[in-house]
Write a structure and sequence with these properties.
7% of the residues lie in helices and 30% in strands. It is mainly beta and 421 residues long.
Length: 421
């Protein structure tokens, strides 16, 4: 029995414009009723015949959409790729403006309620509670230090980005204190995500100018060359120097693993300057592990509620919501996987064994380049009725190609805004 209502067909790849025979594995093409590739100029409302979208697989087989008339395309929607954004919630100072209200003998509390669940897809609550009682001479720095140190000890807050105990968020501190260049001549400083040890390669002298109790301001993620740090980069407290070339920080490094070029990528803040500065804390979501067909938002973005109590006139939480973006490789891979009947993979429903390694799809979830997409909503004339329903059958066709690849067969015929290429 054939149900035509609301069927989904996804084709991911570059377009072939010559012939099906000339197509390589993964190439997508638009053909007429005779299976001849139709030119862009010939596709249009005046074309009387039927069209179909096809794609050749690695074995030379061709998968087609149902045939349809161009005139029966009821809706065309395009989307150019746009980057994903992780949730970021910052309270107090950001290194430039804002501050924490330092209240003597006060109870500060932070509640973080994660709303996602990677196994049950249920958005169920996962609540974490942290508190600090200040002394009779509270400072912004000691309050921020406590929460950064204690929160990052928890597996979900450690900032660790790989492996079995991958964190959900990172926790960073910011200070508007002035920094200075480290006097010691250091060639590089190696720092690993999730580790609180920095290993230095010295060009001369030793690490005597880095004093226990001082703070290091470390350049943002990916700064492996001499990129000057800014006050909006995170700070870490030096708690010991285990050897002549190593420095221990008070919390695991929250950024990505890097070989930093001193002195401009790492600078020093004295303990006195930090204690007198305006300070703040940021909790920010991290991209999670990915398994094809397993994660409902194709990348499992972390979302959470952050609530404060007892913080007085501390600068309010500045919250940037998570954004899935458009054309993310993981999302396209998941869409393609679903459109092919889960690609014969039963493990999504808890059935073993996992045969994901046998699945051949054309979207690359690890690609550094996102996809542009074109979605067509189509009415089908034959059969004219969906099973157990009335009216014309409907289908959705999605075409996806790497951003920037010219797609010759849709330039004119499927004219959309924004332009799809």
């Amino acid at each position: 029995m054939f149900k035509t209502d609301n069927s989904l067909h996804v084709f991911v790849g570059p377009q072939e414009t010559a012939s099906i025979a000339a197509a390589s594995a993964g190439d997508v093409f638009i053909v007429d009723e005779n299976n001849a590739i139709i030119s862009d100029a010939a596709i249009g409302t005046d074309h009387p015949g039927l069209l179909a979208i096809g794609q050749k697989d690695a074995d030379g087989n061709v998968r087609f959409s149902p045939r349809f008339k161009f005139a029966n395309v009821t809706k065309k929607t395009s989307a150019v790729d746009s980057a994903r954004t992780e949730q970021s919630s910052l309270f107090g100072g950001n290194g430039s403006t804002g501050s924490i209200d330092a209240i003597n003998s006060n109870r500060y509390t932070v509640r973080v309620n994660f709303k996602n669940n990677v196994s049950l897809f249920s958005k169920q609550s996962d609540l974490h509670f942290f508190e600090y009682v200040s002394d009779a001479s509270a400072t912004q720095g000691e309050i921020a230090d406590y929460f950064a140190q204690v929160m990052s000890k928890h597996e979900k807050f450690s900032g660790k980005r790989t492996g079995k105990k991958r964190a959900s968020v990172k926790v960073e501190r910011f200070s508007d204190a002035a920094d200075s260049t480290i006097a010691t001549t250091i060639t590089t400083m190696a720092i690993v995500n999730g580790s609180n040890i920095i290993t230095a390669v010295l060009a001369s002298a030793d690490l005597a100018t880095i004093v226990v109790g001082d703070y290091l301001r470390i350049g943002e993620d990916g700064h492996v060359t001499q990129v000057p740090v800014a006050t909006t980069d995170a700070v870490y407290k030096v708690v010991s120097k285990p050897s002549a070339t190593t420095i221990e920080l008070d919390q695991p490094y929250q950024g990505t693993t890097a070989l930093l070029q001193q002195s401009e990528a790492v600078e020093i803040i004295t303990a006195a300057a930090y204690a007198a500065s305006n300070v703040g804390i940021r909790v920010m979501g991290l991209e999670q592990d990915y398994k094809l067909g397993l994660i409902p938002d194709a990348g499992n973005q972390v979302t959470f509620d952050l609530d404060l109590d007892g913080w007085g006139s501390t600068t309010a939480v500045a919250n940037t919501a998570a954004d899935l973006g458009d054309g993310h490789p993981r999302a396209i891979a998941d869409l393609e996987w679903f459109s092919q009947g889960s690609a014969g993979a039963p493990y999504r429903h808890g059935t073993m064994p996992n045969n994901a390694d046998l699945i051949t799809l054309f979207a690359d979830p690890a690609s550094a380049t996102s996809y542009n997409t074109l979605e067509l909503q189509v009415d089908l004339e034959d059969p004219g009725h969906a099973v157990a329903g009335s009216g014309k059958g409907k289908m959705t066709i999605v075409l996806a190609a790497l951003s920037g690849d010219s797609q010759a067969l849709v330039t004119t015929a499927f004219a959309v805004t924004p332009a799809w290429d």
